[in-house]
Amino acid sequence: MRTAYRVETVRAAEAELMAKLPDGALMRRAAAGLAAACAGMLGGAYGARVVLLVGSGDNGGDALYAGARLARRGAGVSAVLLGSRAHEAGLAALRGAGGRVADDPVGAVERADLVVDGITGIGGRGGLRPDAAEVVRAARGSGAVLVAVDLPSGVDADTGEVAGEAVRADATVTFGAYKPGLLIDPAREHAGALRLVDIGLALPPVPDVEALQHEDVARLLPVPVGESDKYRRGVVGVVAGSARYPGAAVLAVSGALRGGAGAVRYVGPAGDAVLARHPETLVHAGPPAKAGRVQAWVIGPGLGDTPGADDVLESDVPVLVDADGLRNLDPSAVRSRPAPTVLTPHAGEAAALLGTAREDVESRRLEAVRELAGRYGATVLLKGSTTLVASADGPVRVNPTGTPWLATAGSGDVLSGLAGSLLAAGLAPRDAASAGAYLHGLAARRASRGAPVAAYDVAEALPAAWRDVRG
Ligand SMILES: NC(=O)C1=CN([C@@H]2O[C@H](COP(=O)(O)OP(=O)(O)OC[C@H]3O[C@@H](n4cnc5c(N)ncnc54)[C@H](OP(=O)(O)O)[C@@H]3O)[C@@H](O)[C@H]2O)[C@@H](O)CC1
Ligand SMILES: Nc1ncnc2c1ncn2[C@@H]1O[C@H](COP(=O)(O)OP(=O)(O)O)[C@@H](O)[C@H]1O
Ligand SMILES: [K+]
Questions:
Q1: N or C: lower Cβ tally within 10 Å for the chain?
Q2: Does ligand 1 come within 6 angstroms of the Cβ of 18?
Q3: Residue where one domain finishes, among candidates 180, 210, 240
């Protein structure tokens, strides 16, 4: 599991550790890790031209001490001082190692092999200030490798928001713990490749944000054993499709068939289309209450104007509500259910549920997903460039797989079928949602390999994604 901690928590852990260590020891640890990462990216420090962008705080201090180390190993290092002050001991160390302060900042970054962004870290507020923004633009245009210290300057460490201009780094070397903003868009896109330097912090066992990795998902996936039969593996019911959108039913069923349940019941008017593609489906015209027993329902993809989720929400099994099923969804109807509910909105649907604008959800995903989970008393999977899963309590899960090629019609239908199938197979709601998103993103990467994919290609790549995860 990859874990991330809010600034407040990181600062508390730092304070506790600093009290036990000699002055400056933590910063030296951070700077040593940073210098080693920079030297690695340069293929050796000797002869390299390195420019440090140095802000007023300790983030600039890290850059200066790392610069001193690189200068001692033969790099030509200069510092661009952008803050109201600069870390005094760090600057003295740089000068002592032969580094200097740049007199032509833009010229220096244009000639650099590597630029170190030490403008702001966890103490930064808002976007870059104009003088910093100018130098950062020159660095971006220069062809130098851009390495952010702790965080790309200008992004919000706790939320992933980017309020103004921010550094776009090739890599970020972060200290002690990942911060949520490094894992969540739009900030994540600014961070480039992530590297964590252990500085010995003791962090609480429960993080603020976490991201599943292969081995976590492998532990969650349901695997049939000798005694299994199709009913014991779980039956998932899919209420989807309409005369206008029969394809959504086919796609949701295609995800459900590859999600671990032993059988898929389809309920709705698109039975012929479903059977033509998936003859193994148990088809029923409806209503859902008459279709037979299931262990979980999926409702919503392609329903169009046909009645919403009310019937299904009255059942006593877990329900996943997606797409058209989310329209006008009543929080009290969801909250009073005796069984868990999973909602899977994209940003537009989440915005409608929250009564806000889509852009607002996209710029503040973490807040939006937490708010929806609280309001509905449900597990909420917010789709998009970073998919997040939140329950009423516990860490928010960030999905680390996926590709922008997934932004293709119908791929969400495959995901709802898949996650619903995992629910029917007995996974807890947040596990079903996050393992579903993980496999879906992995399948999309496999199916795409840099080329456009259709939603059905994603469904077909799911078995290979399972095998990847299970090793
Ligand atoms: N504590 C530790 O043990 C360890 C900490 N470590 C390191 O310390 C970092 C945190 O250091 P920090 O607390 O000094 O804050 P930091 O991010 O450098 O910047 C704050 C200053 O920047 C300014 N500023 C604010 N917004 C701005 C903006 N938009 N654009 C431009 N400038 C802006 C503002 O000053 P102002 O210019 O307004 O006077 C403010 O005072 C952390 O990320 C890690 O790298 C490591 O060494 C490991 C050990
Ligand atoms: N920019 C993006 N990067 C990565 N994944 C994306 C992006 N945009 C959309 N997705 C993913 O694509 C899928 C689209 O689902 P959805 O919006 O419900 O589409 P549809 O309703 O057409 O099925 C979701 O899994 C979502 O997370
Ligand atoms: K930085």
A1: C
A2: yes
A3: 210
Helix (H, G, I), strand (E, B) or coil at 297: strand
Q: Is 58 annotated as ligand-binding?
A: yes
pLDDT digits (tens, 9 = 90+) for 128-180: 999 999 999 999 999 999 999 999 999 999 999 999 999 999 999 999 999 99
pLDDT at 229: 83
386 assigned to a ligand binding site:
yes
Residue 271, domain extent: 214-470
- 406 and 280 part of one domain: yes
The domain boundary, picked from 210, 226, 241, lies at 210
Asked whether residue 24 is marked as a ligand-binding residue, the answer is no
Distance 83 CA to ligand 3 centre (A): 13
Instruction: Tokens 């928001």: give the residue.
Output: 161
The ligand minimizing its distance to the Cα of 385 is 2
Q: Please give the pLDDT value at position 306.
A: 80
Per residue in 214-237, pLDDT tens?
999 999 999 988 888 888 899 999
468 in a labelled binding site = no
User: What is the rounded end-to-end Cα distance, in angstroms, of the chain?
Assistant: 17
pLDDT at residue 97 greater than cutoff 80: yes
Report how far apart, in Å, the C-alpha atoms of 57 and of each of 90, 305, 408 are.
Answer: 11, 56, 44
Burial environment of residue 204 by CB neighbours within 10 A (0 to 12, 13 to 18, 19 or more): exposed
> 120 in ligand 1 pocket by Cβ < 6 Å?
yes
- CB of 240 within 8 A of CB of 269? no
Provide mean pLDDT across the span 255-276: 97
Please state the atom number of ligand 2 nearest to the C-alpha of residue 409: 22
Cα-to-centroid distance, 122 and ligand 3 (Å): 8
